[in-house]
Amino acid sequence: MRSSFIALSHNRALRHFCEHSRVGVRLSSRFVAGMELEDALRVAEAVNRQGMAVTLDSLGESVTSEMEAHQAADVYHKLLDAVAARKLKANISLKLTQTGLELSAGLAEDIALNLTQHALAVGSFVRIDMEDSRLTQTTLDVVRRIHARRDLRDSIGVVIQAYLYRSQADIEQLLADHIRVRLCKGAYNEPAEVAFPRKTQVDANYVKLAQMLLESPVYHALATHDEPMIAAAKSFAERKGIGRDRFEFQMLYGVRRDLQSALVREGYNVRVYVPFGREWYPYFMRRLAERPANVVFLARNLFRS
Ligand code: FDA
Questions:
Q1: Closest residue (by CA) to atom 1 of ligand 1?
Q2: Which pLDDT belongs to residue 303?
Q3: Of the candidates 15, 31, 225, 248, which lies 20 to 30 Å from 287 by C-alpha distance?
Q4: Which domains, ranges and CATH numbers included, belong to the chain?
Protein backbone atom coordinates (compact mmCIF):
# COMPACT_ATOMS: atom_id res chain seq x y z
CA MET A 1 0.00 0.00 0.00
CA ARG A 2 2.77 2.42 1.04
CA SER A 3 4.73 1.93 -2.17
CA SER A 4 1.58 2.23 -4.31
CA PHE A 5 0.89 5.70 -2.92
CA ILE A 6 4.51 6.71 -3.36
CA ALA A 7 4.41 5.42 -6.96
CA LEU A 8 1.21 7.42 -7.51
CA SER A 9 2.95 10.52 -6.12
CA HIS A 10 5.02 10.54 -9.36
CA ASN A 11 2.01 10.20 -11.68
CA ARG A 12 1.90 13.40 -13.72
CA ALA A 13 -1.63 13.03 -15.13
CA LEU A 14 -3.19 12.32 -11.75
CA ARG A 15 -1.17 15.15 -10.24
CA HIS A 16 -2.41 17.62 -12.84
CA PHE A 17 -6.01 16.49 -12.38
CA CYS A 18 -5.89 16.67 -8.56
CA GLU A 19 -4.07 19.99 -8.30
CA HIS A 20 -6.56 21.60 -10.67
CA SER A 21 -9.79 20.12 -9.38
CA ARG A 22 -11.93 21.69 -6.66
CA VAL A 23 -12.38 18.37 -4.89
CA GLY A 24 -8.62 17.83 -4.89
CA VAL A 25 -7.94 21.22 -3.38
CA ARG A 26 -10.58 20.57 -0.74
CA LEU A 27 -9.03 17.20 0.15
CA SER A 28 -5.56 18.72 0.37
CA SER A 29 -6.69 20.98 3.21
CA ARG A 30 -6.33 17.95 5.51
CA PHE A 31 -2.52 18.39 5.38
CA VAL A 32 -1.92 21.71 3.57
CA ALA A 33 -2.46 25.18 5.09
CA GLY A 34 -3.83 26.64 1.85
CA MET A 35 -2.85 27.66 -1.65
CA GLU A 36 -1.46 31.14 -0.88
CA LEU A 37 1.38 32.54 1.20
CA GLU A 38 -1.15 34.48 3.26
CA ASP A 39 -2.88 31.19 4.22
CA ALA A 40 0.39 29.85 5.59
CA LEU A 41 1.04 33.02 7.60
CA ARG A 42 -2.46 32.89 9.07
CA VAL A 43 -1.95 29.26 10.14
CA ALA A 44 1.51 30.12 11.52
CA GLU A 45 0.00 32.86 13.67
CA ALA A 46 -2.65 30.46 14.99
CA VAL A 47 -0.07 27.75 15.73
CA ASN A 48 2.17 30.28 17.50
CA ARG A 49 -0.79 31.33 19.66
CA GLN A 50 -1.09 27.70 20.76
CA GLY A 51 2.48 27.84 22.06
CA MET A 52 4.20 26.10 19.14
CA ALA A 53 6.78 27.29 16.63
CA VAL A 54 6.41 26.71 12.89
CA THR A 55 8.50 25.76 9.91
CA LEU A 56 7.03 26.93 6.59
CA ASP A 57 7.26 24.85 3.43
CA SER A 58 6.35 26.44 0.10
CA LEU A 59 5.37 23.25 -1.71
CA GLY A 60 7.20 22.28 -4.85
CA GLU A 61 9.99 19.95 -5.90
CA SER A 62 11.97 18.91 -8.95
CA VAL A 63 11.76 22.17 -10.91
CA THR A 64 12.63 21.89 -14.60
CA SER A 65 14.03 25.36 -15.35
CA GLU A 66 16.25 27.98 -13.76
CA MET A 67 13.35 30.41 -13.87
CA GLU A 68 11.19 28.09 -11.75
CA ALA A 69 14.02 27.69 -9.24
CA HIS A 70 14.28 31.49 -8.88
CA GLN A 71 10.50 31.81 -8.58
CA ALA A 72 10.55 29.26 -5.75
CA ALA A 73 13.32 31.24 -4.06
CA ASP A 74 11.30 34.47 -4.36
CA VAL A 75 8.44 32.92 -2.41
CA TYR A 76 10.84 31.95 0.37
CA HIS A 77 12.37 35.46 0.45
CA LYS A 78 8.86 36.89 0.80
CA LEU A 79 8.15 34.40 3.59
CA LEU A 80 11.26 35.41 5.51
CA ASP A 81 10.31 39.09 5.26
CA ALA A 82 6.76 38.35 6.40
CA VAL A 83 7.96 36.21 9.31
CA ALA A 84 10.16 39.10 10.46
CA ALA A 85 7.48 41.78 9.92
CA ARG A 86 4.85 39.83 11.85
CA LYS A 87 7.33 38.64 14.47
CA LEU A 88 6.34 35.03 13.94
CA LYS A 89 8.13 32.19 15.65
CA ALA A 90 8.84 30.52 12.34
CA ASN A 91 11.61 29.35 10.07
CA ILE A 92 11.60 27.82 6.58
CA SER A 93 11.97 24.29 5.20
CA LEU A 94 13.29 23.95 1.69
CA LYS A 95 13.89 21.13 -0.78
CA LEU A 96 16.99 21.53 -2.93
CA THR A 97 15.25 20.03 -5.99
CA GLN A 98 12.90 23.01 -5.73
CA THR A 99 15.87 25.35 -6.08
CA GLY A 100 17.27 23.48 -9.07
CA LEU A 101 19.47 20.71 -7.64
CA GLU A 102 18.63 18.37 -10.52
CA LEU A 103 19.54 21.07 -13.07
CA SER A 104 22.73 22.29 -11.44
CA ALA A 105 24.05 21.77 -7.91
CA GLY A 106 25.66 25.23 -8.13
CA LEU A 107 22.31 26.90 -8.81
CA ALA A 108 20.63 25.16 -5.86
CA GLU A 109 23.54 26.00 -3.59
CA ASP A 110 23.57 29.70 -4.58
CA ILE A 111 19.85 29.97 -3.90
CA ALA A 112 20.14 28.15 -0.55
CA LEU A 113 23.08 30.38 0.38
CA ASN A 114 21.12 33.58 -0.40
CA LEU A 115 18.18 32.32 1.62
CA THR A 116 20.42 31.43 4.56
CA GLN A 117 21.97 34.93 4.46
CA HIS A 118 18.46 36.41 4.42
CA ALA A 119 17.42 34.13 7.32
CA LEU A 120 20.44 35.29 9.32
CA ALA A 121 19.56 38.95 8.66
CA VAL A 122 16.03 38.51 10.02
CA GLY A 123 16.91 36.10 12.86
CA SER A 124 15.36 33.03 11.23
CA PHE A 125 16.71 29.66 10.09
CA VAL A 126 16.75 27.47 6.96
CA ARG A 127 16.14 23.74 7.24
CA ILE A 128 17.06 21.78 4.15
CA ASP A 129 14.60 18.88 3.83
CA MET A 130 15.97 15.50 2.75
CA GLU A 131 14.68 13.90 -0.43
CA ASP A 132 15.35 10.44 -1.90
CA SER A 133 18.66 8.65 -1.38
CA ARG A 134 20.09 9.60 -4.79
CA LEU A 135 20.34 13.12 -3.40
CA THR A 136 21.53 12.47 0.16
CA GLN A 137 25.23 13.06 -0.39
CA THR A 138 24.81 16.18 -2.57
CA THR A 139 22.33 17.66 -0.09
CA LEU A 140 24.70 17.08 2.84
CA ASP A 141 27.60 18.56 0.85
CA VAL A 142 25.63 21.73 0.07
CA VAL A 143 24.60 22.18 3.71
CA ARG A 144 28.12 21.52 4.95
CA ARG A 145 29.60 24.13 2.58
CA ILE A 146 27.09 26.81 3.57
CA HIS A 147 27.48 25.98 7.25
CA ALA A 148 31.26 26.26 6.94
CA ARG A 149 30.85 30.04 6.52
CA ARG A 150 31.32 31.22 10.09
CA ASP A 151 28.51 33.79 10.11
CA LEU A 152 25.94 31.26 8.84
CA ARG A 153 26.62 28.46 11.34
CA ASP A 154 23.43 28.99 13.35
CA SER A 155 21.23 29.68 10.35
CA ILE A 156 21.16 26.37 8.45
CA GLY A 157 20.46 22.74 9.31
CA VAL A 158 19.56 19.51 7.55
CA VAL A 159 17.37 16.41 7.84
CA ILE A 160 18.50 12.82 8.41
CA GLN A 161 16.30 9.80 7.72
CA ALA A 162 16.50 6.90 10.19
CA TYR A 163 15.58 4.34 7.49
CA LEU A 164 18.93 4.76 5.69
CA TYR A 165 21.84 2.52 6.71
CA ARG A 166 24.24 5.41 6.20
CA SER A 167 22.51 7.72 8.67
CA GLN A 168 24.53 6.86 11.76
CA ALA A 169 27.77 7.73 9.96
CA ASP A 170 26.17 10.91 8.59
CA ILE A 171 25.06 11.96 12.07
CA GLU A 172 28.54 11.35 13.48
CA GLN A 173 29.94 13.71 10.83
CA LEU A 174 27.22 16.32 11.32
CA LEU A 175 27.74 16.28 15.08
CA ALA A 176 31.49 16.75 14.59
CA ASP A 177 30.65 19.80 12.46
CA HIS A 178 28.02 21.07 14.96
CA ILE A 179 25.28 21.09 12.32
CA ARG A 180 21.67 21.10 13.50
CA VAL A 181 19.75 17.97 12.52
CA ARG A 182 16.07 17.13 12.19
CA LEU A 183 15.67 13.39 12.57
CA CYS A 184 12.75 11.74 10.76
CA LYS A 185 12.05 8.16 9.70
CA GLY A 186 12.04 8.86 5.95
CA ALA A 187 9.18 9.22 3.49
CA TYR A 188 10.43 7.83 0.15
CA ASN A 189 10.49 4.36 -1.42
CA GLU A 190 14.02 3.10 -0.90
CA PRO A 191 15.47 -0.29 -1.91
CA ALA A 192 16.76 -2.74 0.71
CA GLU A 193 20.31 -2.03 -0.49
CA VAL A 194 20.18 1.41 1.11
CA ALA A 195 17.38 1.34 3.70
CA PHE A 196 16.04 -0.89 6.45
CA PRO A 197 13.03 -2.69 4.97
CA ARG A 198 11.13 -3.29 8.22
CA LYS A 199 9.42 -0.76 10.49
CA THR A 200 10.90 -2.41 13.62
CA GLN A 201 14.41 -1.87 12.24
CA VAL A 202 13.68 1.75 11.31
CA ASP A 203 12.23 2.39 14.75
CA ALA A 204 15.23 0.84 16.53
CA ASN A 205 17.56 3.00 14.45
CA TYR A 206 15.42 6.09 15.14
CA VAL A 207 15.76 5.56 18.91
CA LYS A 208 19.53 5.07 18.63
CA LEU A 209 20.08 8.14 16.43
CA ALA A 210 17.77 10.29 18.58
CA GLN A 211 19.92 9.46 21.60
CA MET A 212 23.07 10.52 19.75
CA LEU A 213 21.44 13.86 18.93
CA LEU A 214 20.06 14.41 22.43
CA GLU A 215 23.50 13.92 23.98
CA SER A 216 25.14 16.51 21.74
CA PRO A 217 25.37 20.16 22.81
CA VAL A 218 23.68 21.33 19.59
CA TYR A 219 19.92 22.06 19.42
CA HIS A 220 18.33 19.31 17.30
CA ALA A 221 14.80 18.32 16.32
CA LEU A 222 13.02 14.98 16.60
CA ALA A 223 10.34 14.82 13.91
CA THR A 224 7.86 12.03 14.50
CA HIS A 225 4.25 11.32 15.48
CA ASP A 226 5.17 7.89 16.79
CA GLU A 227 4.39 7.76 20.50
CA PRO A 228 6.94 5.04 21.38
CA MET A 229 9.68 7.14 19.66
CA ILE A 230 8.61 10.21 21.62
CA ALA A 231 8.40 8.27 24.90
CA ALA A 232 11.88 6.80 24.34
CA ALA A 233 13.34 10.27 23.70
CA LYS A 234 11.63 11.76 26.73
CA SER A 235 12.81 9.06 29.09
CA PHE A 236 16.38 9.12 27.72
CA ALA A 237 16.55 12.90 28.16
CA GLU A 238 15.14 12.56 31.69
CA ARG A 239 17.69 9.89 32.64
CA LYS A 240 20.58 11.93 31.28
CA GLY A 241 19.41 15.22 32.80
CA ILE A 242 18.95 16.83 29.35
CA GLY A 243 16.65 19.86 29.76
CA ARG A 244 13.38 20.14 27.81
CA ASP A 245 14.64 23.38 26.25
CA ARG A 246 17.67 21.65 24.69
CA PHE A 247 15.77 20.08 21.76
CA GLU A 248 12.39 20.19 20.04
CA PHE A 249 9.77 17.79 18.76
CA GLN A 250 8.40 18.45 15.28
CA MET A 251 5.16 17.24 13.71
CA LEU A 252 3.28 17.83 10.49
CA TYR A 253 0.35 20.23 10.16
CA GLY A 254 -2.88 18.28 10.52
CA VAL A 255 -1.31 15.19 12.11
CA ARG A 256 -1.79 14.26 15.78
CA ARG A 257 -2.81 17.71 17.04
CA ASP A 258 -3.67 16.08 20.38
CA LEU A 259 -0.08 14.91 20.80
CA GLN A 260 1.29 18.31 19.78
CA SER A 261 -0.75 20.08 22.49
CA ALA A 262 0.05 17.43 25.12
CA LEU A 263 3.79 17.96 24.56
CA VAL A 264 3.38 21.74 24.88
CA ARG A 265 1.50 21.27 28.16
CA GLU A 266 4.37 19.10 29.43
CA GLY A 267 6.82 21.92 28.69
CA TYR A 268 8.51 20.57 25.54
CA ASN A 269 9.36 22.73 22.56
CA VAL A 270 7.16 21.78 19.60
CA ARG A 271 7.39 22.99 16.00
CA VAL A 272 4.72 22.33 13.38
CA TYR A 273 5.67 21.83 9.73
CA VAL A 274 3.22 23.98 7.74
CA PRO A 275 3.15 23.36 3.96
CA PHE A 276 1.26 25.59 1.54
CA GLY A 277 0.96 26.20 -2.18
CA ARG A 278 -0.57 24.85 -5.35
CA GLU A 279 1.94 22.04 -5.85
CA TRP A 280 0.60 19.97 -2.99
CA TYR A 281 0.06 16.60 -4.71
CA PRO A 282 3.39 14.72 -4.09
CA TYR A 283 3.46 15.92 -0.45
CA PHE A 284 -0.16 14.86 0.03
CA MET A 285 0.42 11.39 -1.46
CA ARG A 286 3.39 10.81 0.86
CA ARG A 287 1.09 11.56 3.80
CA LEU A 288 -1.42 8.99 2.54
CA ALA A 289 1.43 6.49 2.14
CA GLU A 290 2.33 6.91 5.80
CA ARG A 291 -1.17 6.08 6.96
CA PRO A 292 -3.50 4.54 4.38
CA ALA A 293 -6.35 4.88 6.94
CA ASN A 294 -6.25 8.57 5.97
CA VAL A 295 -7.88 7.61 2.68
CA VAL A 296 -10.95 6.30 4.48
CA PHE A 297 -11.02 9.39 6.67
CA LEU A 298 -10.84 11.68 3.62
CA ALA A 299 -13.46 9.72 1.71
CA ARG A 300 -15.87 9.92 4.65
CA ASN A 301 -15.42 13.68 4.89
CA LEU A 302 -15.94 14.06 1.17
CA PHE A 303 -19.26 12.25 1.22
CA ARG A 304 -20.41 13.95 4.42
CA SER A 305 -20.03 17.49 3.03
P1 FDA B 1 5.11 6.23 11.59
O2 FDA B 1 4.99 6.43 10.15
O3 FDA B 1 5.63 4.93 12.11
O4 FDA B 1 3.76 6.60 12.29
C5 FDA B 1 3.53 6.51 13.67
C6 FDA B 1 2.13 6.99 13.98
O7 FDA B 1 2.03 8.38 13.70
C8 FDA B 1 1.04 6.36 13.12
O9 FDA B 1 0.60 5.14 13.66
C10 FDA B 1 -0.03 7.43 13.16
O11 FDA B 1 -0.72 7.40 14.36
C12 FDA B 1 0.78 8.71 13.13
N13 FDA B 1 1.00 9.18 11.74
C14 FDA B 1 2.15 9.16 11.04
N15 FDA B 1 1.98 9.72 9.83
C16 FDA B 1 0.69 10.08 9.76
C17 FDA B 1 -0.10 10.70 8.77
N18 FDA B 1 0.40 11.06 7.58
N19 FDA B 1 -1.41 10.93 9.04
C20 FDA B 1 -1.94 10.59 10.24
N21 FDA B 1 -1.23 10.00 11.23
C22 FDA B 1 0.06 9.75 11.00
N23 FDA B 1 10.65 12.79 5.52
C24 FDA B 1 11.69 12.85 4.66
O25 FDA B 1 11.99 11.86 3.99
N26 FDA B 1 12.38 14.04 4.52
C27 FDA B 1 12.10 15.14 5.26
O28 FDA B 1 12.76 16.17 5.11
C29 FDA B 1 11.02 15.06 6.19
N30 FDA B 1 10.67 16.13 6.97
C31 FDA B 1 9.74 15.97 7.97
C32 FDA B 1 9.46 17.01 8.84
C33 FDA B 1 8.59 16.83 9.90
C34 FDA B 1 8.35 17.95 10.86
C35 FDA B 1 7.95 15.56 10.08
C36 FDA B 1 7.04 15.30 11.24
C37 FDA B 1 8.17 14.55 9.18
C38 FDA B 1 9.05 14.73 8.11
N39 FDA B 1 9.27 13.73 7.19
C40 FDA B 1 10.30 13.86 6.29
C41 FDA B 1 8.34 12.56 7.11
C42 FDA B 1 8.84 11.39 7.92
O43 FDA B 1 9.98 10.83 7.31
C44 FDA B 1 7.77 10.31 8.07
O45 FDA B 1 7.40 9.85 6.81
C46 FDA B 1 6.53 10.76 8.81
O47 FDA B 1 6.83 11.62 9.86
C48 FDA B 1 5.80 9.55 9.41
O49 FDA B 1 6.62 8.89 10.31
P50 FDA B 1 6.41 8.88 11.89
O51 FDA B 1 7.73 9.15 12.52
O52 FDA B 1 5.34 9.79 12.29
O53 FDA B 1 6.09 7.35 12.24
A1: 226
A2: 62
A3: 248
A4: 33-279 (3.20.20.220)
